[in-house]
């Protein structure tokens, strides 16, 4: 066998074998290393008949997601009036009573408005007192005018009596036919006396008209302050009283606006979250998270979302349990509280691959057992609701 034949016969297989060994070694060396992955949280399982305190008797369940909340849901507090926050009166976690101040928005303008309105009350009250003080002089003016009218009528009666006397004396003189008994000068004198008396009567009558006009004017002036027909206040006094009332209401409104700048707690409870700090601007609209979030006192509630496909199987009287995320072994008994009838789009997802996401849910509120304690509110729970009349 030639040298070339031996090289082809043994050399090539040896090279191939060497390449195979080296390739296998490279594959083994560079193969991906797989490790056992630890699930982010312990998967949930439905309650079993062997679970202590549960005793399910092998029934079927509705699985759902629940979120803890304070009784009556969390309250998002906003400012009544926009402005810069000057004082914050509470901290997160503080126990509060209804009416306790939470924070105060700048009150400088509102305090100035109150002072202005209070000054308007003083002005209106002074005007009313001034008008009432004018009533006695007006009554005196009426009485004086009435007395003048009576005096004028008395003067008229005197003038009329004097005229009658003068006319009588003139008639006697004119009835004498003998010129020697009474002179012509005496007749003329008596005639002039009658003319004078007639003038005095006309003067007295004009004085009466002037006096009556004065009485009417005085009474009209008094009528503006005193309503004689109703024995009450006249239009000037009523208008002044209305101005006082209006000024007082303006003060009450200004004080109410001032009071609204200090936002107070509407319930007894606890401060869950504070999203506003001194010096920040508080808008008048309700922000998404609320400037302060409050929770009422009482057992924690769980808002459970039942998928619409499970609604026909749901019963409020069915037993229910919840397991907090991260502690699937803990079973917390739930007590039914209420159903919100409006079915809404689903918001909470469990993460299961078989979960329906394009669906709507019925929100059911349960009360967590008082023995369950958690430092947080808004925690998610895996909830199982027993389906009555179905076996597992």
Total helix count? 5
- Overall 3D shape: rod-shaped
The portion of residues forming beta strands comes to: 15-25%
* SS content category: alpha+beta
Largest sheet: 6 strands, antiparallel, barrel
Mean pLDDT: 87
Distance between the termini: 81 Å
User: Over the alpha carbons, how many angstroms does the gyration radius reach?
Assistant: 53 Å
Strand order, main sheet: write it out.
Answer: 1-12-15-14-13-16
Approximately how much helix is present in the residues? 40-55%
- Given as residue ranges, the uncertain stretches (5+ residues, pLDDT < 50) are none
Q: H/E series, N to C? A: HEEEEEHHHEEHEEEEEEEEE
Based on DSSP secondary structure assignment, what is the total number of beta strands?
16
Structure keywords:
four-stranded antiparallel sheet, 392 residues, alpha+beta, 5 helices, 16 strands, 24% strand, six-stranded antiparallel beta barrel
Structural write-up:
This protein has helices at residues 3-30, 108-133, 135-175, 184-223, 235-260, and strands at 59-69, 75-77, 83-88, 95-96, 101-105, 226-227, 232-233, 262-264, 269-274, 281-282, 292-296, 301-307, 320-324, 332-345, 360-368, 380-391. It is built from five helices and 16 strands. Helix 3 (135-175) runs antiparallel to helix 4 (184-223). With 392 residues, it is of the alpha+beta class. The longest helix has 41 residues, at 135-175. The strands form four sheets. It has a six-stranded antiparallel beta barrel. Strands 2-11-9-4 form a four-stranded antiparallel beta sheet, with no helix packed on it. A four-stranded antiparallel beta sheet has the order 8-5-3-10.
